[in-house]
Input
Amino acid sequence: MKAVLRKYRVELVSSLQVDDLLDHLIRDHVFECDDYIKAEKTRQDKVRKLLEDLQKRPASDFWKFIQAMISTQQSHLAEKLIQEYKHLGGVVPLVTSSQHEHPQQPTERGRRNGSPYHEWSDGRVVTSPCDATTSDSEDHRQSRQQNTNRTVYEQKKAEYPLNIYKMESTPRGLALVIDNESFDPGVGDRHGTVEDAEALRNLLIDLDFEIQMKRNCSAEEMRNTLQNFALSLSGREIDACIVAVLSHGRRNEEILGTDGQVVTTSEMRHYFGNQLCPTMAGKPKLFIIQACKGDMEDTLCGQRRHVQGESLADVEKEVFHQPAVPRPLPDNADICFLYATVEGFVAYRNVFIRKLCEVFRANADKFHVKEIATLLNSEMASLSLDGRLTMSEDRGSLTKFWYLNPPSSV
Output
């Protein structure tokens, strides 16, 4: 905290509107009195006195200071302090735009000037409990009405302005879908994948993503397609991007091209990193991988290895029509990119993508992506595919909550 304030001391002294902050800091009990700060003759000296005091206080007061900056329309300064705090390895708590959005209950403290009064936890005093109840009830009713008219994204953006990815561009983002069906001899084709790709395409359209589709790419063609797609993002006014790859795969997150050669998921991520793809710096990126990550199957009778002689096409086949039946959780449940399976195990075509589309359609306007991924994992864990079990997996490094904010119900 001290290091952050020290680094941005010059900018804060130069720009911070301290008079606007003081009422918020007193309300939040950072200071009991601000007279000694207001006694300073210039705005700059007031800021210096404030920073000097803050450095002696606990971390909780630092975050109240951040909150006060946000509440007084100085979020640009707050964002710089938060990013520096994160850069130094600190964990950033949720920072809201209004700590008193929800009404608080008053506690009766006595009488003032002969009249009963209630003092609220933020220091407000009302002379009549009835006045407090009526006023608060009206405020709460209006707040509920406003929330009813706003999407979940809008509500969360207003509540946590620095902790939510912006998702307001038109289109919301760009998406690339690579779908490999026909492979060289000896590898085995992926019959039925066209249906998965089409279902995914329709979902992305409904989420307001502009889509590029590529089919039957060799490993080198996959690399070129990924690189060109990343380059195409440059200069586009978009808030996110999604890459989906539907193909054969094997251990160590190797994805096969139609020629049997491999591209790794680490290569894919590299093309969209901040250095090679600066347009997407600070913006969310989602990778959807429908591919095997090994040759084991999870079954009701325990794990078994992929039987020698079975082709990848035999293993990754259409089984979605199999009814779900009650069963124990697979060994790989509760393991906290979106992957169709976990390391070492096969993936089943026409299962993961269809279930992903179903879960995203039902929840894209309600929950953020990590929550939706958890719901997807739960759905996948509940399936029994003719005695075989499967477990999807999500991993990532999102730094904010990602609400997809579709333009309409999907």
About this structure: The two ends are 43 Å apart (CA to CA). Residues 253 and 265 are 6 Å apart (CA to CA). The chain has a mean pLDDT of 79.
